[in-house]
Amino acid sequence: MKRFLIKSNYFFTLLGVIISSQAFSQVATNDSAYLATRINNLISQYDQAIGDQKILFNGKEYLTYDKYYLKGHQFFRSGEEQEGDVYYDGYLFTNVPLLYDVLLDQIVISEPNGSLLFKLENKKVNYFKVHDHTFIRLAADTLSESPVKTGFYDLLVDGKTKLLAKRVKRVYEDATIRGMEGEFITEDRFFIRKNDQYYPVSKKKAVLKILTDNKKELQKYSRNQHLKFKKETREYALVKLIQYYNNLPPGKSP
After folding, report:
1. pLDDT tens across 188-224, in order?
2. Which interval of the chain is the signal sequence (predicted)?
């Protein structure tokens, strides 16, 4: 089921027009009952238009915590709201202006009139999409030794073997002779999911150890594609390698 987020400016603008115009005519007609009816009807139209979207604004208020001296921001890709999709509390909401606070692992949305920011309840989010990336929520099993902790993970490759990224940011602050300085630092972590098990990976060697059934083919492909696993190109290389692996016929484990 889809719900489309709409802008409420029209309703509030129209409400203002009705109030001002009717207030003027009230001097002559003193028809306060008529004015109240018009306002109630407009509010009812607004509630009907929003419909199930009201459940998005039941969370706690989001208060920004960045400081003037910090470089960068705490959000994924951009500090400006971007339209995305959210599967929340059993409903799919599309074209929702949102932010993903990576530091807090928190989805942030603004109310229809844009005056307040709210935090969605993480446990009610199945997945969300923003910046052409799909984030799924994983709940860690507290009894297992899985390297995956509860939170949102960027599903980079879907298929028989999956590649996920845990987007991580931390704040670095330092007191200098020029005053306080600092920045938001990104530290992405990558995981392969194979046979319902999660494995942390960063180097080609770790990938080949997990995908041993097609090790030779993957080594050859990596050389031909000149894949590099340095920090700057690690994500690209991992995506290419896992995508290639998923398209290979089943190999034999050594």
Report:
1. 999 999 998 999 999 999 999 999 999 999 999 999 9
2. 1-25
- Residues 79, 181 share a domain: yes
Q: Measuring CA to CA, which residue among 125, 124, 81 is closest to residue 100? A: 81
CA distance 215 to 145: 26
Residues 6+ apart with CB under 8 A from 199: 147, 191, 192, 193, 206, 210
Same domain, 105 and 231: no
Q: What tokens appear for 80 in the block?
A: 């400006």
User: Does 192 share its domain with 253?
Assistant: no
The parent domain of residue 50 ranges over 2-55
CA distances from 91 to 2, 88, 111 (A): 7, 5, 18
Same domain, 154 and 236: no
Least confident span in 3-12, 90-99, 164-173: 3-12
User: Which residues touch 164 (CB under 8 Å, ≥6 apart)?
Assistant: 136, 153, 154, 155, 156, 190, 191, 192, 193, 198
Place of tokens 């971007």: 82
Q: Are 230 and 149 within one domain?
A: no
Q: Is the pTM of this model over 0.70?
A: yes
